[in-house]
UniProtKB/TrEMBL annotation:
Signal sequence region: none
A Pfam entry, by short name: YqeY
Molecular function per GO: carbon-nitrogen ligase activity, with glutamine as amido-N-donor
InterPro entries named in the record: Asn/Gln_tRNA_amidoTrase-B-like, GatB_Yqey_C_2, YqeY/Aim41, YqeY/Aim41_N
Protein name, per record: GatB YqeY domain-containing protein
Length: 148
């Protein structure tokens, strides 16, 4: 488990540097992973760890939107820093062109021709992009390509 080792090393560094944001964020990640392990009753695979990290990232992005809507710039800045820390542990995110290419491949493999077959495309596509792209963005691209 390379992620656990990396988290522990970064946690020690954050403690030494007195970086409260990094410290709290890494602790939250470790707690989320531990909770997922307890819930599953076994050690998590890399994909499952990535899924937990993606959930942590999504929660922080949702919080960022809420803080901006509530004019809480102080909390928004802290949340941006937390997002950067969580993203450090995730694989690089796909851009829209790469997602579009994967969507085209999924449409071709599934034989989908209209929006009614959206589920077929998503079913084959999501395992390929899990943890590397936001599901809402993927869904939007699939819908736009199926409507075209």
């Amino acid at each position: 488990m390379a992620l656990a080792t990396e988290l522990n090393q970064d946690l020690k560094s954050a403690m030494k540097e007195h970086d409260k944001v990094a410290l709290n964020t890494i602790r939250a990640i470790k707690t989320a992973i531990t909770n997922a392990q307890i819930a599953s009753g076994k050690d998590l695979s890399e994909d499952e760890e990535r899924s937990v990290l993606a959930t942590q990232l999504k929660q922080r992005k949702d919080s960022l939107e809420q803080f901006k809507a509530g004019n809480r710039e102080d909390l928004a800045e802290e949340t941006k820093a937390e997002i950067a820390i969580v993203e450090k542990y995730l694989p690089s995110q796909l851009d829209e062109a790469e997602i579009g290419k994967l969507v085209d491949e999924a449409i071709a493999t599934s034989g989908a021709t209209n929006v009614k077959q959206f589920g077929l495309v998503m079913k084959s596509l999501m395992p390929k992009v899990k943890g590397r792209a936001d599901g809402a963005v993927v869904s939007q691209i699939v819908k736009s390509k199926l409507n075209a």
